[in-house]
Amino acid sequence: MRSVLSISLSCAIALALTSCGGKKQDAPAATTEAKPAAAKRISIAVIPKGTTHEFWKSIHAGAVKAARELDVDIIWKGPLKEDDREDQIKVVENFISRGVSGIVLAPLDDVALKTPVQAAAERAIPTIIIDSGLQGDAQVSFIATDNFNGGKMAGERLAEVLGGKGKVVMLRYQEGSASTMKREAGFMEAIGKHKGIQVVSDNQYGGATRDSALTASENLLSPMKTPTGALIIDGIYCPNESTTFGMLRALQNGGHAGRVKFVGFDSSAELVEAMKNNEIHGLILQDPMKMGYLGVKSMVSHLKGEQIEPVIDTGAVLVTPENMAEPEVKNLLSPDLSKWLDS
């Protein structure tokens, strides 16, 4: 009897530590403060309209500069050609699937890119639009040149060098590009104020590449010649780098460069050289490096919960043969991107 009671008492005493006839229970874990999970590193997709023109290389350099200063990651990817809307849409969709922190986008089309940007917003991935506008309100900010004003500057410059009279043509870029459509509209408003100037063609498009712009320029100029081969026009305006370059080549190939007044938009090494030779009489320059820099910087501020402006104007400058050697202008004409981009 005593033996049975002893066994029972032993089991009762040990019950808190071990089950009678069972395995030992685990001791309670020591109480510690929970460590916070490591913060996810910010990754920002920067998506240009294209990747070949000098303008987009400057955008890229500005984005890299901001990323280094702020210690965030950027992923640079865009369509090869500036008319491949479907490819740009796929790029946006792929970045949504990857779950990037944010998107900085220069939309090829102000309507076609509306749906993927909305899809990004629904996944809590914010988008900042740069360079060219987008319809809708899914983006958190728009960072660009005042393109309408830039077009007006071009129109005023062409009217100035023409002395307020003559026949002019405008070679447009491509339909759906909000930035260049505003530049074209601004030009037409400014040039229309000069009653002595007649616009004899404004409905032709150069397209997204230098080659397509060269062909379009040659086709535009072909019927505008006298029997001796001279041009019947006095002035020309083009609203972006590819159309300006294509028109320059058409003028050079036909022996007309420098004989008509020519105003364009954006810059490249060839356009700078043409201005030195008085084959181009004005270029409206944006600040693409600033655009790329502010795109990334503003996205980081937004992701940190800071307030950012809904519209940011990065400015435009009229460059002429007379002011092109000034330090600030020279830096816009021929920026040194080697510090930010691999050669």
Tell me what the structure shows.
The protein has helices spanning 2-14, 54-70, 85-98, 114-122, 147-162, 178-192, 210-221, 241-253, 269-276, 288-303, 327-333, and strands at 43-47, 73-76, 102-105, 127-130, 141-144, 166-172, 197-205, 235-237, 261-265, 282-285, 311-313, 317-319. It has 343 residues and is of the alpha/beta class. It folds into two domains: 43-145 and 287-314, Response regulator (Rossmann fold, 3-Layer(aba) Sandwich); 147-285, Rossmann fold. α8 links the parallel β8 (235-237) and β9 (261-265). The longest helix is centred in the N-terminal third of the chain and has 17 residues, at 54-70. The model is unreliable at 1-35 (pLDDT under 50).
Which features characterize this protein?
343 residues, 2 domains, Rossmann fold, 12 strands, 16% strand, six-stranded mixed sheet, alpha/beta, 11 helices
Q: Determine and state the CATH class of the largest domain.
A: Alpha Beta
Average the pLDDT over all residues and give the rounded result: 90
- Counting copies of identical and different chains, the oligomeric state is single chain
CATH topology of the largest domain: Rossmann fold
* Class inferred from helices and paired strands: alpha/beta
**SSE ordering:** HEHEHEHEEHEHEHEHEHEHEEH
Unreliable residue runs: 1-35
Show the helix and strand layout:
Blueprint: H1 2-14, E1 43-47, H2 54-70, E2 73-76, H3 85-98, E3 102-105, H4 114-122, E4 127-130, E5 141-144, H5 147-162, E6 166-172, H6 178-192, E7 197-205, H7 210-221, E8 235-237, H8 241-253, E9 261-265, H9 269-276, E10 282-285, H10 288-303, E11 311-313, E12 317-319, H11 327-333
Parallel strand pairs: 1-2, 1-3, 3-4, 4-5, 5-11, 6-7, 6-8, 8-9, 9-10
Antiparallel strand pairs: 10-12
Helix pairs in contact: 2-10, 3-4, 5-6, 7-8
